Amino acid sequence: MSQFRLAFFLSIIRICQCVLMTNMTDMRNFLKSYNTHAANANNEAVTIAWNYYTNITKENQAKMTESDLDMANFTKVWAAKANQFDWKRSDLNATEKRQFEKITQLGFSSVNDTAKIELKSNLEAELTGIYSTGKVCLTEFGKGCLELEPGLTDMMANSRNPNELLAAWKGWRDQTGKKMRTKYTEFVNVMNEMIKFSGFNDTGEYWRSWYEASTFESDVKKLYNELLPLYEQLHAYVRHKLKNKYGTALFPDTGHIPAHLLGNMWSQSWSNIYDLLTPYPNAISVDITQKMKDKGYNVTHMYRVAEEFFTSIGLDKMPTSFWNKSMLEKPANRDVVCHASAWDFYDGEDVRIKQCTSVTADQFLTVHHEMGHLIYFLAYAIQPVIFRRGGNPGFHEGMADIVSLSFQTPEHMHAIGLLDSIPNDKESDINFLMQMALEKIAFLPFGYLIDQWRWSVFRRETTPNNYNANWWDLRCGYQGISPPVQRTEQDFDPGAKYHIPGNTPYIRYFVSFVVQFQWHKALCDEIGYKGQLHRCDIYKNKTAGAKLRNMLALGSSKQWQDAMQVMTGGRNMSALPIIQYFTPLIDWLKEQNKEENIGWSAQCPSNIPSPDQTNNQARLSVSTETVCLIIVTLTNFLLMSM
Ligand SMILES: [Zn+2]
């Protein structure tokens, strides 16, 4: 629809608002009609986005921008139609009213200015493009030029050379975040301007509204504080072990851990350095990467095994189209967005995964995660299109992960032939819990802080001239990690994490890490499991699958608190199950950490230790950088003034 016709149409509707239609049959017919049209419109939009994400070209980007405009128009037109009805005061049932309510929520589509919609869409594509095509040349280490996946990711995971790790860590930030700073500032501004038309103060407030709880911000803060003692114990243990490995010279005296030593580009999961942290090296540790290779696993087989888990508990098989249309491996001949993702094409059948899969234990988990999303899509396909979402965004991620809690147990590894015997000694058990903690506990502050930063940016409490400083305040303060090399406002380290350029809200992952343990406990209780929570495997248990499906099938047709009640009997998020799960490990860590100072200072260290320099030289290099920054800033100012 052209802009003119749309404006005309909207003005007619505005004039007509005084006489709202009250006929119930018309309202129900409207909902039916919306459903058909929305399924088609979404299918078209998702197809165009898929084409771009699996083939980054200027042409595909232009099509996506056009499609964003169409989608915004679609949302606006149908919201206007819905508002012609007096649905609020009608006798429609609660579910029907909820459909109307959601159809009339415009989000970013409320803006009429096409230029703004186009700008937002273009900036998003450009930012994602910078991220997805970033390459770091590490010729001095004989590595050539590496992309994030698999090259840099493997290097961060496997290298134990701190200089090499530092080069990869810094190189990635130079090649991505640093190039985004100006565009990101513009992006924040345009989003905030657009969302005001929907009555929100800023984009962060809009994102939080999806959780349908006025206390959401304080609820997650409370959960974070309840979980902090677990993280502090893990942090102290890991710091001690890493000091043994790398020597104390690399570590600041503020208690922080240098960010490049944790086996991951963002220090968000520490699983890859388990070899340096193994509590009992002589006891059994589950390490299936080698076993997968020995057993001749290939990419397709990984997806088949994941599918078998879901069907074993009575959930859906992947449709034939999944196998034909997904992108399960990285194509050689074109640029793609490798970051793994799950796609719903809104026709009740076409669901796909896009992942540059390789045969490793890590990727095997991601395969289960993405397929978990698809299972959710298929379960709520019985709902009207407007309800085909998770109970809240954290629910979708929680569902994607819940299987991992069963899948990773030694019991399950043994059941699928990836572990020769089931260990039952205390030492192997602590080893297993340590592996889980490096994934699940290590992540918590990271999952919490990303949107603390972004909400603050949207509120304009964090402004472009302190983007990076505030980012590091949070990283140092919450995660207890420190930058391995001096950072300045020339850098833009948030941009080196996919979800910032990709504009994906992040608090959902924190929520997910809490609720998945609640659900795991609920399912294990349901099947009458009596052992320790961390050894429960719901594999092949159709009772567990049926209970899970009951919640999944709701989609967002009810508030998430209702869905939570279906699953757990309670209506709130709770940290107790995750605490219960890890209690044996936490008790053990407290013993190990008796000599350690638990925690770290709230501020980042002012000096960055370097192994090649004495302390004096380190201080000198910091002050040189500060001087450079001032000169650069002044130059910019002068250039702008002229
Ligand atoms: Zn996910």
TrEMBL record:
Q: Which GO terms describe its cellular component?
A: plasma membrane
Which cofactors go with this protein?
A: Zn(2+)
Q: Which residues bind Zn(2+) 1?
A: 369, 373, 397
Q: Which residues are glycosylated?
A: 55, 73, 93, 298, 324, 572
Superkingdom of this protein's organism: Eukaryota
SUPFAM superfamilies recorded for this chain?
Metalloproteases ('zincins'), catalytic domain
Chemical reaction(s) catalysed = Release of a C-terminal dipeptide, oligopeptide-|-Xaa-Yaa, when Xaa is not Pro, and Yaa is neither Asp nor Glu. Thus, conversion of angiotensin I to angiotensin II, with increase in vasoconstrictor activity, but no action on angiotensin II
Q: Provide one Gene Ontology biological process annotation.
A: proteolysis
Q: Which residues bind Zn(2+) 2?
A: 369, 373, 397
Q: Describe the family membership recorded for this protein in Swiss-Prot or TrEMBL.
A: Belongs to the peptidase M2 family.
Protein name according to UniProt: Angiotensin-converting enzyme
Q: Which organism is it from?
A: Mytilus galloprovincialis (Mediterranean mussel)
Classification of source organism? Eukaryota, Metazoa, Spiralia, Lophotrochozoa, Mollusca
